[in-house]
Amino acid sequence: VLHKLGLGSMSTVWLAKDAVENRCVTPKIVIADLSSNNGESAILQWLGTRPRDHPGAKHIVQVHDSFQIQGLNGMHQVLVMDVLRSLYSLIHQAVFPQQWSSVCRQVVLGLAYLHQEAVVHGGKRTAAVLQDC
Question: Region 104-125: what's the mean pLDDT?
């Protein structure tokens, strides 16, 4: 583990080095109370079994690994995913109009893929939308 990226009401996200694949990943550690009934995890793992030929599929995060660890507060589910940055962080940077149109296109394509797979994204905040680094 290299660095803590964020803490929310449902999980803590870290930056880590995958020594086997020689890449950076983000382990997302879900709080113990939600680990046994984590809808996000179930949906992301199910999406991993679905065809990815839709142009929006590449804009949806993939779970590379999932496991549980024992912590002080009980069992925690860990989802290992790609390193992403939040749309919220882009809003606070100087982004040119051409880049915004690309970001918006990626979000719409990702949502179209989710809808094709009968998944509804319930995020209302920009922090719930992520972009590839």
Answer: 83
Integer-rounded Cα radius of gyration of the chain: 15
pLDDT category, 113, cuts 50, 70, 90?
Answer: very high
Is 80 exceeded by the pLDDT of residue 28?
yes
In contact, 27 and 18? CB cutoff 8 Å: no
CA distance 116 to 120: 10
Phi and psi based region of residue 22 (left: phi greater than 0; alpha: psi -120 to 50; beta: remaining): left
Q: Structure tokens of 117?
A: 């797979």
Contact status, residue 4 vs residue 12, Cβ threshold 8 Å: yes
Which of 30, 7, 128, 32 is closest to 79 using CA atoms?
30
Q: Answer yes or no: is pLDDT of 123 > 70.
A: no
Task: Answer whether residue 87 shows pLDDT above 80.
Answer: no
* CA gap 16, 28 in Å, rounded: 10
